[in-house]
Design a protein that fits this description.
2 copies of one chain form a homodimer. With about 140 residues, chain A is mainly α. Helices cover about 65% and strands about 5% of the residues of chain A. The relative contact order of chain A is 0.08. Chain A is built from 6 helices and 2 strands, in the order βααβαααα. Chain A has 2 domains: about 10-75, Multidrug-efflux Transporter Regulator, Chain: A, Domain 2 (Orthogonal Bundle); about 85-135. The first copy, chain A, is elongated. Chains A and B meet through helix 3 and helix 5 of A and helix 3 and helix 5 of B. Chain A binds a DNA duplex (30 and 30 nucleotides) through helix 2. Chains A, B: Pfam families: MerR_1 (PF13411). Chains A, B: Keywords: Coiled coil, DNA-binding. Chains A, B: This is MerR family transcriptional regulator.
Chain lengths: ~140, ~140
DNA sequence: GCTTGACCTGGAGCGCGCTCCAGGTTCTAC
DNA sequence: GTAGAACCTGGAGCGCGCTCCAGGTCAAGC
């Protein structure tokens, strides 16, 4: 009867907050803040109340970071996280959120491309302007 | 001797702050804030001290908005505006700033594309998941 | 057992980019 | 000339997304 329950060494691997911070690029404070804000469900603890992140926590964090990097606000991520916590019944709602976010992202990317090419024009303009001002450089070589 | 100096009706067109706000999508407060912050050189005034924006002001504002929309911070825009105010001698510096900004923009756009396609995968995954859960819908029609 | 560094909590503070406010002046239309 | 809308200034306030702090507890190596 020593092997019915998972023994300590059978447990899935877990990471300290410092390791997760290192890996995600988030600070300790930000990780704790995300948990306090409800973006992450309460992370498992040691008997001494220290966080131990598991693989699933890391996957979720990576997804959150993708949302953040594509410009989703904390409050929208909170909304998404709440839906997720409610389980499979909210899959359609989450899909709708992702589709809307994706569409906004497409808009922003279009705008960025437009602005980027306007910047390119300006840069080219400055380059020509500088070339014209130092015409001797070439003639002397 | 009545036509040597530009008469009032010869003046170039100008716009009130409300018209510029309407046109740029910025609020009155933001326009005043940008001027106070040194992003815009002091705009011309009526004798009664009310702002009258001219064509050159609008062009510069549009350029600033392009920098802002591509993620440049106010303090970097202040730096750029200071260089511009110093005149042609700073063209090379401004070009360097624009090139760096453009490179950062390219990086961010690459990251956005990566994240966008990861989002697309997730969206597809949810779509399949929903389809599988309601297999009857098709069979009955 | 002790030391030292990592970790905990609740709550205050901060930098950014505006936004709002009070109290006053100017412009426009009648 | 007057009413009402638009504008002015300096400065306070705000929402966001963290970041820092104080005052403690816990864990790992010696």
């Amino acid at each position: 009867m020593t092997s019915g329950q998972p023994l300590p060494q059978d447990r899935e691997p877990s990471w300290t907050i410092a390791q997760v911070a290192e890996r995600t690029g988030l600070s300790h404070d930000t990780l704790r803040y995300y948990e306090k804000a409800g973006l992450i469900e309460r992370v498992g603890r040691t008997t001494g109340n220290q966080r131990r992140y598991e693989a699933a926590d890391l996957l979720w964090l990576e997804f959150l970071l993708r949302l953040r990097e594509t410009g989703m606000s904390i409050s929208d991520m909170q909304h998404y996280a709440r839906l997720r916590a409610e389980g499979d019944a909210t899959v359609a709602d989450r899909l709708a959120m992702l589709r809307e976010h994706r569409a906004e992202l497409a808009d922003r990317m279009r705008a960025l491309r437009r602005n980027a090419s306007a910047l390119d024009d300006k840069i080219e303009h400055y380059e020509r302007l500088l070339d014209e001002r130092r015409p001797g450089t070439d003639e002397l070589t």
